[in-house]
Structure formats: structure tokens, C-alpha cells
Write a structure and sequence with these properties.
It is built from 10 helices and 8 strands. With 264 residues, it is of the alpha+beta class. 42% of the residues lie in helices and 20% in strands. It folds into 2 domains: 3-78, Nucleic acid-binding proteins (OB fold (Dihydrolipoamide Acetyltransferase, E2P)); 81-147 and 195-261, Recombination protein O, C-terminal domain (de novo design (two linked rop proteins)). Bound molecules: zinc ion. Residues 153, 155-156, 158, 177-178, 180-181 line the site of zinc ion. One of its GO terms (cellular component) is bacterial nucleoid. Residues 1-79 form the DNA replication/recombination mediator RecO N-terminal domain.
Length: 264
């Protein structure tokens, strides 16, 4: 079997029989792929720790006729700070699942690999993890051609400026709306602030890790960004993103700590 080496992030793993695992990897060179990790369920296996989610590997992969085989894996990063914080684990798991859902197998996207990897590092030290996560969502969408249209109205194509601001968002069309078009499409338009659209644009373009880790947005803006992105994604990612439910429940607890603490 031909073998190649690649940097890869472990997105997911499922047990295969008593001893093995099937891992879903996102490799820098070959894109998303699934591989059998033989013996990886045995705690003594060299592959055991290397085949858990949120691990960066230097992987040797043997190409099989149906499934590839992960023959060797050297752990390069295991993101300890991320794994010490449940909220960050949920956000990182969502980042991985979103990537898994939008990528086809064996379709290389090295820029998306770099984006996910840098997002995992940024999450470990972000002042406001959700801001970094939304930047990731927007930049990933841009890489695969699903980014929201934010600089001109999605219906009439007139460019926005201070005298012609966006006041709505159409999730089905995938872009911001001017005042007349928001009125025209009132049944589907989500009202929003012009500032939110500007912030979405800024987050799409902001790639500097240090700035992203330091950036903090007002809670109301973050809530509106989340609402718009969620609706936008619903029209573009057909499959359910399971980790979102857990992340939402956790966010609710973060925003209302006392209320949740009082639940018997
Ligand atoms: Zn318009």
C-alpha cells in the first residue's frame, strides 16, 4: 500500500470492534479522510492518545482500497489549555464539526487546515472565545464560497455607506439588506444593526491571531452576530451540527450563572 505523511487534525473517532478505531482526520495535504487506527482502543497502544479528538498529528497513512490505515501517528500538539476548559472544548468541537460537515472527503483545503489550527491556538488565549469562533465561521465560509454578502445589498446590489446603511439580513439569500429591500422582504428579513454588519465584515477579514485573541465585542453585538450566522449557516449546511446544542446550553449557563446554579 502506498504510504504518505501529512499534518492532520483529529476531528472525530468512533470505535471499530474491540480494538480498533475509525478516525476522521482533516489533513493538510489530502483534506478530510477516514482511516482505521488498528489497536488504538487498547490503552497501551501508541495510537491510543494520538487518535483522540483535538490532537494535531504528524500522520503516516497507508492508502487502502476502501479505508486508509493510520499506520503511525506522532502527536505534535494536544491543546492542554483548551482541554482544561469545558466551554473551550465545546467551542473547539463545534469548529471541528462545522469543518467536517462542509468538507467533502479527499478535497484538499490547506487554507482551511491552517485556519482551524490557528483558531484552536487562538481559543486557548482568547479574551472572548465566541468572537474568535465567529471569525473562524466567517473565514471558513469565505474559503468555501459561502460567505455572507456584507458590503452591498444582497437584493438590489447597491453598496452600503453611512447614508445607505444595512438594516436587515436575509439568511436564505445570504446577505445584508438596505432599508427598501428589508421592507420589501419583510417576511424573511431579520432586522439588524448596521454596526453588526460592519463587525461581521471586520471578523471576516481579521486574520491576525494576536488581534483576534484580544478582541472583545459588546454582548448585544455578539448575540446578533450569533443569530445572523446561525440563520445563514442553516441555509448552507444541510446536515445537523450536533455540537451546537451543547454549546448553546453552555452559553446560556455562562450568561446566567446564578439562575443555572439555583436549579435544584
Ligand atoms: Zn437593497
Amino acid at each position: 500500500m502506498p504510504t504518505y505523511k501529512t499534518a492532520a487534525l483529529v476531528l472525530r473517532r468512533i470505535p471499530l470492534g474491540e480494538k480498533d478505531k475509525i478516525v476522521t482526520l482533516f489533513s493538510r495535504d489530502k483534506g478530510k479522510l477516514r482511516a482505521v487506527a488498528k489497536g488504538a482502543r487498547k490503552p497501551t497502544s501508541k495510537l491510543a492518545g494520538a487518535t483522540e479528538p483535538l490532537v494535531l498529528l504528524r500522520a503516516s497513512i497507508a492508502e487502502g482500497s476502501s479505508l486508509d490505515v493510520l499506520s503511525e501517528a506522532e502527536v505534535r500538539e494536544s491543546f492542554p489549555k483548551l482541554k482544561a476548559d469545558y466551554g473551550l472544548i465545546l467551542r473547539a468541537s463545534y469548529a471541528c464539526e462545522l469543518l467536517e460537515k462542509v468538507m467533502e472527503e479527499r478535497d484538499p483545503h490547506p487554507e482551511s487546515f491552517d485556519l482551524l489550527l490557528s483558531t484552536l491556538y487562538i481559543l486557548q488565549r482568547a479574551a472572548q472565545p465566541d468572537t474568535a469562533l465567529h471569525a473562524y465561521e466567517l473565514q471558513l465560509l469565505a474559503q468555501i464560497g459561502y460567505e455572507p454578502q456584507l458590503s452591498a445589498c444582497i437584493r438590489c446590489d447597491n453598496p452600503f455607506d453611512t447614508d445607505y446603511p444595512p438594516v436587515g439580513y436575509s439568511p436564505s439569500r445570504g446577505g445584508a439588506l438596505c432599508i427598501p429591500c428589508t421592507e420589501f422582504l419583510h417576511a424573511e428579513a431579520m432586522p439588524c444593526n448596521a454596526t453588526t454588519i460592519l463587525l461581521l465584515e471586520r471578523l471576516t477579514l481579521l486574520t491576525d491571531a494576536k488581534s483576534l485573541a484580544a478582541l472583545e465585542l459588546p454582548t448585544e453585538a455578539l448575540t446578533e452576530i450569533n443569530r445572523i450566522l446561525r440563520a445563514h449557516l442553516r441555509y448552507r449546511v444541510e446536515r445537523e451540527i450536533k455540537s451546537l446544542g451543547m454549546l448553546d446550553a453552555h452559553r446560556l449557563g455562562e450568561s446566567q450563572p446564578e439562575k443555572v446554579a439555583n436549579v435544584p
